[in-house]
Amino acid sequence: MLQKNKYELSIVIPVFNEERYLDKLFSELIKYFNEKNVEVIFVNDGSTDKSKNIIESLKTNQEYKFNFNIINLIKNFGKGKAVREGFLNSSGKYVILQDADLELDLKDSKELLDIIKNNDAIKCIFGSRYLSGKLKKHNYFFNELFGKINSFIFNILFGQSLSDIHCGLKVLHRDVIDNIKLSINDFGLEIDLAAQIVRNNFFIYEFGVSYYSRTSKEGKKITWVDGVKSYYYLFKVRFIDNPISIKISLIYSSMYMTFVGSYFGMGSGKTLFMIVFFIIGLAIGLKNKLLQSSLIFLSIYIGSLFGNGQGKVLSVILFFFIGLYLAKKISRYKKINFF
Hints:
Spore Coat Polysaccharide Biosynthesis Protein SpsA, Chain A
């Protein structure tokens, strides 16, 4: 078993076919992190170029003082798997997640580390490519657009206000590492990591970093396919990766709210109401267990007994909010299990 906090800092670097950048990356590590209380973990994710040989040759270098660790995966599993292996084999009080492609500056990594070390209240800092006036170079408009859209959707789903969940530079305290269990193997890692941090009630701070985007010819690997998959991962981490009680509540609440929506409108308008009420049902299911959710449903039903036409709609809306209020009041009695 690894000794916790054996080092002050662990730097986890996933690598897949980055032969052209590793020498410069190593020089930057020596420049900013060449200390004995630091461990650097290269995770070779089944590279098919010369990356593995270059990393092994760097280990024979006499200039570094940090502990140099190499993990070789038998095939290319994806960034998420590589990072997970790096976390499992790390023992630092703080962990920096650093890409090997030099799109992100190690000088910024050092700056983020200094911030978290000097403030005990901060357990997690994400780099953001969209904050501050630091130097930036963006090559792909749609990559940047989808990144911002994904951050926006994540914020809605988890009640956050993050500008850049996909930035590869992150600094985490050991307390965070010990409370998360990553499961996504590819570039969905960033969504998985952010979701688990929020679920474990850690606050995510952000700090602006420099960004030098590569082109596909220069080795950039993320594609539009990863962009499409990210929407599935957003759905997965919010609605699938939940305890069984939440899953049951999600199904129950979305079904009865869709049923309620079927009483409004006609034709395409009725379909729109059902979709909207289905989404509201998902939100209710995430926040309320079965008893509270049933109370909301009962309130809506009582509201439907009053009025006609627009009057009935207003009555249902009014009793819906009454139900939400009562459910919130009941949920404060934590000694009772409202499964």
